[in-house]
Amino acid sequence: MLRIHVAIATVGRAALARKTIDLLAGQSRRPDGVLVVGAAEADIAGLADSPLHPEVALAARGLCRQRNRALELLAGRCDVVIFFDDDFVPSPDYLAAVEAIFEGQADVAGITGNLVGDGVRHGGFGIAQAQAMIAARTLQLDPAIIPREALYGCNMALRMADVGDLRFDEALPLYGWQEDIDFTMRLARRGRLVSTGLVSGVHLGVKGGRTSGLRLGYSQVANIVYLLRKGTMPRALARKLLWRNLASNVLRAGFPEPHVDRLGRLRGNAMALVDLVRGRIDPRRIESM
After folding, report:
1. 235-252 and 262-278 are packed helices; what angle lies between their axes, rounded to 10 degrees?
2. Which residue spans within the chain are E strands per DSSP?
3. Which among 287, 83, 57 has a CA at the least distance from the CA of 172?
4. Looking at residue 219, what is its pLDDT?
5. CA distance 147 to 136
6. How many other CB atoms are there within 10 angstroms of residue 105's CB atom?
7. pLDDT of residue 144
8. Could you tell me the mean pLDDT of each successive run of 10 residues in the chain, 289 residues long?
């Protein structure tokens, strides 16, 4: 039996984190431990009182920094770490399916679940909505185990033996946009990455505690350039992300979605492109914005 721990990095959303942690008690295969890493005491307030009694810790603010802190604390203590966003609701058999795949396929280094809903694209879902979607749609997902180039950061299970000394790149600050691509493309050099409908859930896409539109817009350009130069983002994906985001921000800046700061993103895009031309583009610049 594998030792499976769930790790969650959170900022500014302790109440939401508490709700999603409590839901883990309903897993058919409970986690052997839950670790929550915040950036301030307020981020982890009340979490230790959850029925699962999660371990709590602090790190410098930033998704990569907080997840690296989790990896440091869990080293030698678990066989599998599952990173969930603080607004991810897993299907009830998520952990059981992850364990079965890792036990049955020794060459698998990482697993990501197929989403039955992603609130990032739809302005956000509530927990009750997510549970209803899981109940209605999970059985319709394809159970085939298929190869992946990279994993989706809102939910990814990693074999710790393959992770080893691998860490998230802290040069991608704050929300760490595309940090999952960078980390798991490097992990893929150590073992297979897969996804399957047997592992699923809903990303609520809740707003609040996220990076500003200006910062995200800068990251949409700067992080892509950085990862291209680093060699951990395929050129085809980089082109697709860059042009899709630029086009969306330009076309929707005048009539944005209620939940998206398109004008802020467009300003951030422009700042990054100017920095690129001037030869000073750097993902870390958003920390001073």
Report:
1. 130
2. 4-9, 33-38, 55-58, 80-84, 88-90, 108-118, 146-147, 155-159, 192-203
3. 287
4. 97
5. 26
6. 14
7. 95
8. 97 94 96 98 94 96 98 98 97 98 98 91 85 92 95 97 98 95 97 97 78 91 97 95 95 86 95 98 96
Q: Is 174 exposed, middle or buried (0-12, 13-18, 19+ CB in 10 A)?
A: buried
- Cα within 13 Å of Cα(66), Cβ side: 27
The rounded distance, in Å, linking the Cα atoms of 272 and 16 is 32
DSSP per-residue string spanning 44-65: GTTGGGSTT--EEEE-SSSHHH
Q: Which CATH fold would you assign to the domain 4-203?
A: Spore Coat Polysaccharide Biosynthesis Protein SpsA; Chain A (3.90.550)
Spatial distance between the Cα atoms of 105 and 250, rounded to a whole number of angstroms: 45
Q: How many residues comprise the chain? A: 289
Contact status, residue 9 vs residue 81, Cβ threshold 8 Å? no
Indicate the residue type of 46: G
Q: Which amino acid is residue 234, in one-letter code?
A: P
Two tokens, residue 133? 């979607």
Note the pLDDT of residue 123: 73
pLDDT number for residue 208: 61
Which token pair is 166?
Answer: 């691998």
| Residues in contact with 32: Cβ distance below 8 Å, sequence separation at least 6, in sequence order | 3, 4, 5, 78
| pTM exceeding the 0.85 threshold for the entire prediction | yes
User: What are the structural domain ranges in the chain?
Assistant: 4-203, 213-288
